Amino acid sequence: MGESILTPAFGRVDGALVCEGVALETIAETVSTPTYVYSANAIREQYARLARALAPVPHRVHYSVKASSSLGILALLRSLGAGVDIVSGGELYRARLAGFGGEDIVFSGVGKTEAELREALEARTLLINVESEGELRLLERVARDLGVVAPVALRVNPEVTVNTPHHYTRTGERGLKFGIPYGEAPAVARLAASLPHTRLLGLDMHIGSQVSELDPYRLGMLRLLELYEQLRAEGAGEIRYLDIGGGLAVTYDSEAPIDLDAFADAVLPSIAASRLTLLVEPGRFLVGNAGVLLTRVLYRKRTGGREYVITDAGMNDLLRPSHYNAYHRIEAVRPRGARVVADIVGPVCESGDFFALDRDVDDVQPGDLLVIHSAGAYGFSMASNYNSRPRAAEVLVDGERFGVITTRERYEDLVRHEQLTPDWRTGGCS
Ligand SMILES: Cc1ncc(COP(=O)(O)O)c(C=O)c1O
C-alpha cells in the first residue's frame, strides 16, 4: 500500500485510493455515491491507543454516540469494550439496539425531557449527567414515581478558557448554556446528595470539541476535584466517578492532534490520587479520521473567473464546512496528474453548500471520484434531507471485506411520515 493520508487505513494501490484492503472504486461501483466509508481497523487502533494511555487508572471509555451513531459503528465499539455517552432518547434507543446495557451508558445533554429521564431510569443507565437544578428536581420526581433512585453525576461548567477552531464547539466557558455554573455547583450537589430519590455518584465536565491544549483539561479537572474534596469533607454524596468529557482533537489539515501521553500526564496523577474512576466521552478522536465521504464529480463549471467542481454530495451529507467553516482534505481517488484551484461544491441550492473554497486540488473531470477526508465524526450523523435529498449510504471496511451498514435512502423514505391531507381535528375554542 502507498503512503498513508491521515491514518494508515487509507492509502494508494496502483495510483488509486483504497481503504484497508478494499478499492474505493469498487465501493462506488457497488454501492454508488455519495457514500461514507469507514475503516474498522482505524477505529480499533484509536480505541486501543486511548485505552493504553488511560490504563494506569481505573477508567471507562464512553464513546460519544453523536459523532457517528449508526448501529454498525456502535456494535464495533461495543465489541472493543467501550461504553457510550448519549444525549437523547433516540441515542439511548440506538445504544440498546447495538447491545449496550444500562451500566454501559452515561446520559448527557442540557435539555432532557421528562420522557427521556424516565427512559434512562428504566434502562438503568450508569449515570445521568444533570445540568441544572431544574433537571435535578424533575429527575427526583420521575425517579420517585418509578420507585427508584436515580444515579446522578453533576455536569459542572468549570469555566475555563477553551481554544477550539470554531466557537460553536466550546462548552466549558463561563456563561455558556452547558452545565451548572461552577459557583452554584456545591449547592446543587448538596441538594442531589440530600434528595431521597437521587444519588450523587459523579462529577462531570465537557469543555468542548477538537481541543488539543491540555490546560483546559488540567484546570477543569482540578476545579472538579476541588469540588469533590469539599463535598467529601462535608460527607455529601457518594462520588466515585469523575467524567472529564470528550473533545480530544484529531488532525484535519496540519494541526496537532491531542498528544495522548501528555494528556495522560496532565490528567492521570490527580485522578489516581483521588481514587475516583475516570470516565471519558470521546467521539471525534475515535472515528473522525476513520471515515471518508466518497463522492462523484457531476460537472465542472467556470463562472465569473471562478472554477467550480460540482459533486453529487452536498451540505446535507456533510455539514461541517458550511456550519463550522471546517477544513477537510480532498483528493481524487485516481488523480489525473494535473492540478487546479477550484471551489468544490454540492448541488444544494445554497451558496453555503461547499466543501472547499479556492482549493488547490486534483484537476478532476465529470465522472471522477473524490474523497473528502476526516468525515467519520459529525458527518453522516449531522446529515439531513434538505432539498429532499435521500441520505447517503454507509459502508464499513474490515481488511479485505466491506459491508453496507446503512442503506441509501430512497424517495419513499423521504415522505414516509407525511400526509397529503392532514387528519383534521377541532381546536376547541368555541
Ligand atoms: C457531553 C459531550 N460529551 C462528549 C462529546 C464528544 O466530543 P468529541 O467528539 O469532540 O470528543 C460531546 C460533543 O459535543 C458532548 O457534547
Explained architecture:
With 430 residues, this protein is α/β, with parallel strands linked by helices. It folds into 2 domains: 10-39 and 288-414, Lyase, Ornithine Decarboxylase, Chain A, domain 1; 109-280, TIM Barrel. It is 29% helix and 26% strand. It contains 12 helices and 21 strands. The chain has helices spanning 24-31, 40-54, 71-80, 89-97, 114-122, 133-146, 185-194, 215-234, 260-274, 284-287, 320-324, 411-414, and strands at residues 10-13, 16-19, 22-23, 35-39, 59-64, 83-86, 105-107, 127-130, 150-157, 180-181, 198-204, 241-243, 277-280, 291-303, 306-311, 330-332, 339-345, 354-362, 369-372, 393-398, 401-406. Strands 4, 14, 15, 16, 17, 18, 19, 20 and 21 form a 9-stranded mixed beta sheet that branches. α2 (40-54) packs across α3 (71-80) and α8 (215-234) packs parallel to α9. The radius of gyration is 23 Å and the shape is globular. The mean pLDDT is 95. Bound molecules: pyridoxal-5'-phosphate. The site of pyridoxal-5'-phosphate has 17 residues, from α10. The site of pyridoxal-5'-phosphate (PLP) has 17 residues, from α10.
